[in-house]
Amino acid sequence: MDYDFNFAAVWRDFDLLLSGLGLGLFLAVVSIAIGCLIGLLAAFGMLSRHSPVRWVSTAYVSAIRNTPILVLILFTYFALPQFGLRLGKIESFIVTLAIYSGAYLTEVFRSGLVALPTGLREAGLTIGLTEFRTKILITIPVMFRNVLPALGNNFISLFKDTSLAAAIAVPELTFYARKINVETFRVIETWLVASLMYVLACSIIAALLRQVEARLAIPR
Amino acid sequence: MTAPVLEIRNLHKRFGQVEVLKGIDLTMQMGDVVSLIGSSGSGKTTLLRCVNLLEDYEEGMVAVAGEQIGYTERNGRRVRLREREIARQRAMTGMAFQHFNLFPHMSAIRNVMLGLVKTRKMAKDEAYATAESWLERVGMADRKDHYPGQLSGGQQQRVAIARAIAMNPQLMLFDEVTSALDPELVSEVLAVIKGLVADGMTMLLVTHEMQFAHDVSNKVVFMQDGRIGEEGPPDQLFYNPKSERLAAFLKSSKF
């Protein structure tokens, strides 16, 4: 192949790509934070004594996990306004991604909770803690540390999913890459740079997460 | 006259269709040390767990220091107390478990401090000092910053006992606290309990250590099929069992 690489066009708009990357990270962080809350509630819901609560939690998880995320994104952004719920692009995307990650995190947290020895809860109760405080002080922190690797993997795949926000014109990395591509026709250079930026960002996140895991690990 | 530390009357407990406690009566005064012995499935651990309501009970009553645990009468009907009340009542007793159940994400001293700070509302530095002195008492002061995963079974159990007694309970419950330990670690835990007996602590123990039960108890209760099969002073039960069942049990326990 005889091709003259020319990255000048890409470099000219590199700050756009960078800001897009930053927005993607922001979207992933906010979404997983909300997703963790949803996932925690739904995980306890799945383990509830009350069958309607179990049923609702299970329905949520299977409905979301069995729908392609792109469809969810388009549904929230284009269909919900028809029902009178109008959200901005970014808000709409965050809502979608939080609900989406919440469904996957439900399974992560549920298995984490099931794996805990029952004696942990009982020990909390015997020193006079209520069920709620036992969860807050003991079972959730221990479970959280145990599932940290799975949580990290979820975060990285969630970060990559932010590229789908381009579909509703959220100005993140993929959106700008497409813009540069269209304006300059430097197809190879544009997507090469964009891909490398994703790879680099994910590697750095993974390394940071390993640090966090090591620091929070339960000493043995 | 003050109320007995523990009063159990006509206690019944069912797991579904199976009745595991079929009418238990037991009274303990301050300073009493009572051992529950019997084969597995006889209901001794369940009985212990009804005292702090880790198990609900269907009939009869359990009272600690004159206060009925877990339930009250309202308009002639038996109602379960509110969560907060039950939590307060649970802290009247302390419990040590077969599998220690230390909080794995906290150091030894933080394990002991948690209940002092959260339940007893102690200031942090006071809780630290109290926890430290109890760890000292069980011979674990030099390991106070170790995490449970870094301690042997016997050490974990001693920390777990410190965690329970630091709360200053009126009654200590011991649930087979040496059963999960390697044989050479059993004695260090039994020594701690003996020390507490010498201090006059009131305690109810489920144990398979017959010699130990004989040495520390002022009363031994032999559980049999959810009932009290035989009870009395240790010498009488161990050397002069009335029933065939108890004699056979003692023989199989190599006493």
TrEMBL record, chain A:
One of its GO terms (molecular function) is transmembrane transporter activity. The chain crosses the membrane at residues 20-47, 59-80, 191-209. CDD domains: TM_PBP2. It is found in: Cell inner membrane; Cell membrane. SUPFAM superfamilies: MetI-like (SSF161098). It is a multi-pass membrane protein. GO terms for biological process: amino acid transport. It comes from the Bacteria. Its main location: membrane. Keywords: Amino-acid transport, Cell membrane, Membrane, Transmembrane, Transmembrane helix, Transport. Residues 21-209 form the ABC transmembrane type-1 domain. GO terms for cellular component: ATP-binding cassette (ABC) transporter complex. Part of the binding-protein-dependent transport system for glutamine; probably responsible for the translocation of the substrate across the membrane. Belongs to the binding-protein-dependent transport system permease family. HisMQ subfamily. This is Amino acid ABC transporter membrane protein 1, PAAT family. It comes from Aliiruegeria lutimaris.
UniProtKB/TrEMBL annotation, chain B:
SUPFAM superfamilies: P-loop containing nucleoside triphosphate hydrolases. Residues 6-250 form the ABC transporter domain. It is a peripheral membrane protein. The keyword Transport applies. Pfam families: ABC_tran. The keyword Transport applies. One of its GO terms (cellular component) is plasma membrane. Keywords: ATP-binding, Cell membrane, Membrane, Nucleotide-binding, Transport. It comes from the Bacteria. It is found in: Cell membrane. GO terms for molecular function: ABC-type amino acid transporter activity; ATP binding; ATP hydrolysis activity. Belongs to the ABC transporter superfamily. PANTHER family: AMINO ACID IMPORT ATP-BINDING PROTEIN (PTHR43166), L-CYSTINE IMPORT ATP-BINDING PROTEIN TCYN (PTHR43166:SF35). This is Amino acid ABC transporter ATP-binding protein, PAAT family. It comes from Aliiruegeria lutimaris.
